Amino acid sequence: MPYGLVNSGDAISPRRLNALQGVIFFLMIVIVGRLFYLQIIRHEDLLQAGLAQRAVVEELSPERGSIYALAGDNSVDFYPLAVNNVNYDINADPAKISRPQNITDIFASVLGLDDTAKAEIFAKLKKTDRHFETIAKQIPKEKEEQLRQALEQLRTDINQSDPGAKPITSLAEMGVNFNKTVLRYYPDKQDGAQVLGFFGYGQDGYSRVGSYGLEGFFEQELSGAKGSLTGEKDVKGRLINQENVSPRQNGANLVLTIDRNVQYAACQALAKALPLYQADSGTIIVMESSSGAIRAMCNYPSFDPNEYNKVDSPDVYNNNAVYAAYEPGSVMKVIAMAIAIDQGKVTPNTTFDDKGEVKFKGGEIIKNADLKAHGVVDMKEVLASSLNTGIVFATADISNTIFKDYMEKFGFGKATGITISQESAGDISALAKKGDIFKATASFGQGITVTPLQMIAAVNVIANRGSLLRPYIVSQINWPDGQVQKFQPEVVQQVIQASTAAQLAAMMVNNVDNGHAQAAKIDGYYLAGKTGTADVPNPQTKRYDSGKTIHSFIGFVPHENAKFIMLTKLDNPQTGRFAESTAVPLFADIAKYLLEYYQIAPSR
């Protein structure tokens, strides 16, 4: 028999047949068992796994809330300080593009491109071996709509020109893609930048968060809450069968107490003052005296929040109006004098014989800034001539404990509670030490530190009949569901008697009329104010030998029923020894504008 052939007449032995049947039966059992396991026992698990492979969770990003200033005094209109600019980046897939010239012409027409730019786009669209080319960036919404409309018309024309071809169903299939980009935009750039902060990248390097200022303090309110959309994608990656939509919650809008007109005037004046007086830096605060509402807050040097990463040092982000604690110098004398009068230790007409210096038991000696003795003077002259010896005399019989208690009631040694990040508390801990020297130096603003905001709030006690108002900078929060959270003026406490405040206000008018602050005089108005020239301690020697000074002035108008109170502060100006030649004329320039802006009628 030839090799490989089987005789059909040969019978398969029963033993072999049984074995073959057994194998077949076993395989059938395995297959049926496997099908039973997959289709019955694991059905639900496998179904969910299959759905999971096709399921997609798409994150729905909320829109960040905007920040607005008031557009004017008593205005119901708002001015945008921080908003979202929606732009579009447009890219192409040249491999899909069949009409590069038509698409080029559309971009050139809508965007107003010159021949060079037009040629560059056409060259990119002709690269049919490539799948990605950037065509345009940061295209505004109105231009994006025009481009879409023109490109959609081109898509229709292409489909109609070849009815037998597979229709192009989208611009993406035609080879053009629009990518939405949202950029935080700050229209006023450097003006008030430290108040706003900026919207930048978090510590992880890719998430976006608010930092510094209001952007940082109100990050949760401004950012809103993310939503999500669960669905399936088809084989082409298109989302189908949308389910389980968790709606996003857009961020709330902040409306500030800042008056954009006042802010602009103050910030521009400060920007000009720094080079004029050759100062290192400066701060201006304008506050509505009767409410504590901040109308302007400026610091220079500043930065552009639109380009927050282009700074020499991150220190420029700090809002020194609330962050920088400094020794205020003689402007503190009005506070010390208020304490002395409120305690009944002196009156404006109380006199003392100024010998030019005061000696303490520990051997310390306090002298006047001009190193002169002024003879017999009253308390009005003590403030007008800013005599260190005189304010030490006025507070001499007040215990350290009572003096410290008053200082705390004026708001020193603790943050004001304003809704801006990084507020400092200042430091008046020296007043807890034994020895009259600590109270004495504090009475003329040495040995303690305060922030500009604390200082203006404290002097405003005098302007506001003895009551301390909490400064506030946010007028209302407008939530996306229509709810409005309003902030109201808050009286913290009565610090001094109204009669004491009235006496101090009159003494401060005398400062401007006859004292060191005469550069602040404005014809027709009773302007109350006090200068401060503070020596800056040397951090190495701990002595006042750094050669640096801080000049400041705080004043309010009118001296009765004040409309506004303002602080001007210049750090280390080089053109004058005292604040009367730097911070005071800066104050006067802005005050003249404010008197006209608020239409405050002359009263003298």
What does this entry look like structurally?
The chain is α+β, with helices and mostly antiparallel strands and about 600 residues long. The chain folds into two domains: about 60-185 and about 220-250, Penicillin-binding protein 2a (Domain 2) (Alpha-Beta Complex), CATH 3.90.1310; about 255-595, DD-peptidase/beta-lactamase superfamily (Beta-lactamase). Helices cover about 35% and strands about 25% of the residues. It has 19 helices and 23 strands. It is elongated. The termini are far apart.
Shape: elongated
Strand content: 15-25%
Radius of gyration: 38 Å
The assigned CATH architecture of the largest domain is: 3-Layer(aba) Sandwich
CATH class of the largest domain: Alpha Beta
Structural domains: how many = 2
Percentage of residues assigned to helices: 25-40%
Number of helices: 19
- CATH homologous superfamily of the largest domain - what is it? DD-peptidase/beta-lactamase superfamily
Number of strands: 23
Class of secondary structure makeup: alpha+beta
CATH topology group of the largest domain: Beta-lactamase
* Distance linking N and C termini: 141 Å
Task: Give a short account of the largest sheet.
Answer: 7 strands, mixed
Overall pLDDT metric: 89
Low-confidence stretches: 1-9
